[in-house]
Amino acid sequence: ERDPMRLLMGKGASPHHGFAAFYTWIDQVYGADAVLHFGTHGALEFMPGKQTGISADCWPSRLLGALPNYYFYSVNNPSEGSIAKRRGAATLISYMAPPLQQAGLYKGLRLLKDSIDNYHRHPGDELAEDIRTQAQKLGISVAVDDSSADAYIAALGHELIQVEHRMIPMGLHVLGKAPSNGELVDILALVASFNPAAHPKTGEKLRTLPALIAEGLGLNYEVLQETIKIDSAAQEHWEHIEEIVHSAMTLFVDAPRSPKLDTRAVDGYLHAHARIPAGLLVNLWNSLDDLRSRLIHDHEVEGLLHGLEAGYIPPSPGNDVVRNEAVAPTGRNIHALDPMRVPNAVSTTAGTKLVDQMLARLVQEQGGLPETVAMILWGTDNLKSDGEGVAQVLALLGARALEDELGNVSDVALIPLAELNRPRIDVVMTVSGIFRDLFHHQMNLLDKAVRLAAEAPESVERNFVRKHTLAHAADLGISIHEAATRVFSNAPGAYGANINHLIESSNWENDNELSDMFMTRKSYAYSRKSGWSNQRAIMERSLATVDAAFQNIDSFEIGISDVDHYYEYLGGVSKSVETLSGKRPPVLVADAFSLNDRLSSLEQMVRLESRAKLLNPKWYESMLAHGYEGVREIEHRVSNTYGWSATNDAVEGWVYQDVAGTFLLDKEMRERMARANPHATAAIARRLLEADSRGFWDADDETIEQLKEIYVDLEDRLEGIVTA
């Protein structure tokens, strides 16, 4: 009961008879020629057995027998796809993630934006006070150093820009369905905003499209990025640039393509509105046109049919389309990367830059450098970013990766303190089971970097790794080598911290149960000398020194409310730190890419995800279009948002109030959802009532009574006591 995933993923367990019998029936009774696993991910590849070199005694092989295994898999998840290939002998057939679109503004947010625009045209005290009142009703609070109305309204404007321009996935992907022109505009605009093209004559890289537009308008794009949070004028320029990008991309998508691509309209528009010379962007247009064609003409259904005919399915990288355009067309066999080339130069530069920003932010907010940072490392985002998370850890430690004569990342070395120009930050790493399986080499390098820092003959005031290691060794009576353990994961063959299962089932009474589950599951460490062993005592001592926790967000497609693993890991480690140290650490997250600031506090990101996605009619209507599954997806987001209350108390009351008002207290919406999926609709009501009962939401009595009546009614319908 304390470990509900044991039957599925326990090393010494076996699948229950129903699970095993179904595969036997497929093979020996139904007589299938092949098996198709549909979606991302299943349980077969996580069945007990060896991690590599699967034998006939391992459960994936025993269940599949001689059946070929075809597997429709999301192209943006190469890490778990690699396990399906390695342990499930799967031939992957990629499908595209749901199309991304800008979130836009709606209801009160739209009215607030209109009021701010009006203030910029006609500033006045009465309007400024009205704007404050509107923001308070919407639950928007901003921190500003300057108490003036202009500073406050500029900060509000930035909050709205973040919501309005946030890219969100729209609905669910339908196999073989091409994106619409509107969806193509947003996707291609995003690609052009992060991927510069080559100059048509010199071959040198141009700036990105927004930066070129800013330059043509006589603006410094980098200055805009730095000042957009506090300067209303910068925000107006930023939005003007975004409008030009969007209009240009609309003209490009609608451009004639017979007999060949004609970009005269878009070139003329950019020349007229941003002084970009015609012909300068020819390579960008050719690249985007090629990508457009590959997005429209996917091979998803054809790839499966060709595979079932025993045909060859060509390979494809696994990533999102912004990071790697080569993922299109989908319908191909996903592969990961060469782990010996991780981290590379690009990810090292990006990782070091983000660490500098993180430390500067923590110094500003906390008054000094953190001595220890708890970091979550997943396989998925490190595969897609070529190891940026690994590079971030090395940067915090003040270490660098070394390449051998073949270009492989083979070793690590410390950066001299004089060059580093700051103390070495201690890092407690919690790595996922998938990272453990795919990045064993990087785990060894990170472990070595920590031990080099711990043993370096440096002052403890300039080396927090050594400071804490010496203290742990003295307190626990162990060697420096043992006390320098900082890379923790599950025991071999096990996956997950499982606090998500406790929270989802409401099977927990207090915070200690959550932190105990996390540390019980994630306290195994690897050493070249002794292999895997439980090192909970060292883990507890290390976590007790943590001053901040951090994790990279995988992508726009998979945010912190989209899957429960974010609060399972990042929430789990921060709850453990709080239990051990008596204080809740600040928690930071970083977007995979952003046009201005990648870093956010957890609370900021919960607010942003709630406004841009969960409560956004544009998002939930796209989900409701899919009926049963769409309602289930909405319920998942509500439950995952609740997970951040349980682990971090990071969800403000207005979120729950708006969820209740949007999905349940509105009778028409409630009935619509209940007709499509009564179980998920009842689950939303149950979760809101639990949020109130546990003190995460201080709802008024009338709202709670309404929710109780709604929940009882939905339960009665499910049990057949009453009919709708």
Q: Can you tell me about this structure?
A:
The protein has about 725 residues and is an alpha/beta fold. Helices cover about 55% and strands about 10% of the residues. The strands form five sheets. The chain has an eight-stranded mixed β-sheet, sandwiched between helices. The longest helix is centred in the middle third of the chain and has 22 residues, at about 230-255. The radius of gyration is 26 Å and the shape is globular. The two termini are about 35 Å apart. Mean pLDDT is about 95; it is low at about 1-5.
Give a short overview.
By secondary structure, this protein is α/β, with parallel strands linked by helices.
Main attributes of the structure:
single chain, 724 residues, alpha/beta, 33 helices
SSE diagram, text form:
Layout: H1 6-9, H2 17-29, E1 35-38, H3 59-64, E2 69-74, H4 78-88, E3 90-95, E4 100-102, H5 107-121, H6 125-137, H7 149-164, E5 167-169, H8 181-194, H9 209-216, H10 221-227, H11 232-253, H12 264-274, H13 282-296, H14 300-308, E6 315-317, E7 333-335, H15 345-366, E8 372-377, H16 379-384, H17 388-397, E9 399-403, E10 409-414, H18 417-420, E11 426-431, H19 433-438, H20 440-455, H21 464-476, H22 480-483, E12 487-489, H23 499-504, H24 511-521, E13 524-527, E14 531-534, H25 536-543, E15 548-552, H26 565-581, E16 587-590, E17 599-601, H27 602-614, H28 617-624, H29 628-648, H30 653-664, H31 667-676, H32 678-693, H33 701-718
Parallel strand pairs: 1-2, 2-3, 6-7, 8-11, 8-15, 11-12, 15-16
Antiparallel strand pairs: 4-5, 9-10, 12-13, 13-14, 16-17
